[in-house]
Amino acid sequence: MTADRLLLDLDDAQRPLIEALIKRALEFKRGVADASVRLKGKIVVGMFFEASTRTATSFAQATHKLGGTWHDFHPESSSLGKGETLEDTMRTIQAIGADALVVRHSESGFPHALARHFSAAILNAGDGWHAHPTQGLLDAMTLVEEFGTLDGRRLVISGDIRHSRVARSSARAAHLLGAHVTLCAPPLLLPPTSPGWGFAELSTDLDACLPRADAVMLLRIQKERADGAELPPAEDLMEGYGIDDARVGRMAPQAIIMHPGPVNRGVEISGALMDDPRSRIERQVENGVYVRMAALERCLRAAAAVGAR
Ligand code: CP
Q: Residue 278 carries which DSSP code?
């Protein structure tokens, strides 16, 4: 993140920022903070170049709860198809009066490039393999709700780590709050050796990781980001890195199951376990609304302060 009006990733984020956003999200969730006029008169434009159910809908709902106006920008039916450049599209959206942009794109770094053409708030709703910061925050919020503090807690993330922007942001947020993070995947789906993952432990053996885990987060295979690379068959993922009735018995009784969605039932997790008392999958979705309220409030307040100078 380079400015408070931007929430582009958690790469350089520090613990106080994560804690402040989660604290605010919890205030909104508990009804302690009056939300209804925080974005009064503000326009938030959702610009989703990739499919989304949870993120797009919860950003829209967060805007609504804060008293702002949400507009969906549909790239496929926009004037981009008539040859308008992205830069001119951004100038147009800004001239219409947008105060914030929520953007998802398959290209890593796309929202960062947009920030050069757009002076208002920008929130990254997922860019390529790189980052999904509000998902990282909502996952951390779900863990904080469960455990209070994450200091000393153990989070295991299992599945396609290599192509996952969720893994990057969620692992980083949990680590910043004090959790020990293990990334578990077959060798093909472990992250490449690169800076940024040094804080996490890597494993290819989920069964060895499970008994000590406080939370296990499953990830689907991100076929759309594999770019032709070899991927393990789905049945191999379930056998080695998914959670089913047999494997859940290796978890501690109080440990929880998470998944950012969308879920491929029977591939990362058996359908029955989606409704298991240990599953927090719907709680994650619910918390997404409150985390996005906190993020929108922060970024729009900062953008307004810059505009007022
Ligand atoms: N977790 C997540 O980003 O879900 P959507 O793709 O449905 O937004």
A: T
